[in-house]
Design a protein that fits this description.
This protein is mainly beta. The protein has one domain: Lipocalin (Beta Barrel), CATH 2.40.128. Helix content is 5%, strand content 67%. The protein has one helix and eleven strands. It is elongated and about 60 Å long. It starts with a helix and ends with a strand.
Length: 226
C-alpha cells in the first residue's frame, strides 16, 4: 500500500513536471537550494548467471550549495525501494532501505537563453528484505555522469542530453533454502534524459526529469532556492 500511495503521488505531480533552476533575471543562481525528489526507474542488473531487471524507487531530499561561479556540490539521500525480476530470491521479497550520496553540477551562465550543464553523482544504496525463512541484503554503488544543453525562457526551463551510469553491487542471502553471496553490475550504461520545469515564483519550482536507455523512469522534483 505504501508503494501504491507513493506511485500515485508521482502520477499526480507529473503533469507539473520539471528540472529545477532559478527563475531570476540574472543568469546566476542566487545561492544554495533544497529539493524533494520522488522517483522510480528500472535498469538491468547483470549477475554471473543471468541479467535481471531491477525496479528502484527513490524518495528523498537533496541539499546543494555553490562552491564557485556556475559550480555547486550537493548531498542527497533518503528512502529506497527495490524489486528484482526473475532473481530466485530477490523476486520473492520486497526490499526497502536507504541511499546516500554526493554530487557536483556545473551550468554555464553566459547565454541569456541557452546554456550547457554537466553533473556527476556517486550514490550508495543499502536495502534489505526478508521472508519467513530467509533474509537478504542488497548493496550497490552507482556512478552517474550527464551532460547537455539547458534552454531558459521566462519561468520555463527545458533540458536534455545524454548520460553514463555504472553500477557495482552485491547480494547476500542467508537462511534455507539458499545461502549465497553474489556480485552484480549494470548491464547497460548509456542513455538520454529530458526534463522541463516551471517556476511558481522566483525561487520555487516544480518539475519532472525523465530518462530512457539504460535507465528508464521518471523523477518529480520540488525545489526551493535560498
Amino acid at each position: 500500500m505504501r508503494r501504491v500511495l507513493l506511485g500515485l503521488s508521482i502520477l499526480c505531480a507529473a503533469p507539473w513536471a520539471g528540472l529545477a533552476y532559478a527563475y531570476d533575471e540574472s543568469p546566476l543562481s542566487p545561492g544554495g537550494s533544497t529539493l524533494l525528489e520522488l522517483g522510480r526507474y528500472h535498469t538491468g542488473f547483470q549477475y554471473p548467471a543471468a541479467d535481471d531487471e531491477a525496479h528502484v524507487g527513490r524518495y528523498g531530499v537533496q541539499f546543494s550549495t555553490p562552491v564557485a561561479e556556475d559550480l555547486g556540490v550537493d548531498l542527497h539521500g533518503g528512502y529506497a525501494t527495490l524489486d528484482v525480476d526473475s532473481d530466485p530470491v530477490a523476486s520473492l521479497q520486497d526490499y526497502t532501505g536507504r541511499y546516500l550520496g554526493l554530487g557536483t553540477r556545473y551550468e554555464s551562465s553566459n547565454g541569456d537563453y541557452l546554456n550547457f550543464s554537466v553533473e556527476g553523482r556517486y550514490t550508495w544504496y543499502d536495502v534489505t528484505g526478508s521472508s519467513f525463512v530467509e533474509q537478504s541484503e542488497i548493496v550497490w554503488y552507482e556512478g552517474w555522469l550527464a551532460a547537455g544543453p539547458v534552454l531558459r525562457y521566462g519561468p520555463w526551463r527545458l533540458a536534455g542530453g545524454g548520460y553514463y551510469q555504472n553500477v557495482q553491487g552485491n547480494e547476500t542471502d542467508t537462511g534455507p533454502p539458499t545461502s549465497q553471496y553474489r556480485t552484480f553490475s549494470s548491464d547497460r550504461q548509456l542513455g538520454g534524459y529530458l526534463g522541463f520545469a516551471f517556476y511558481l515564483d522566483r525561487t520555487g519550482s516544480i518539475g519532472v526529469y525523465a530518462t530512457a536507455g539504460a535507465r528508464q523512469g521518471i523523477n518529480v522534483v520540488f525545489k526551493r532556492e535560498f
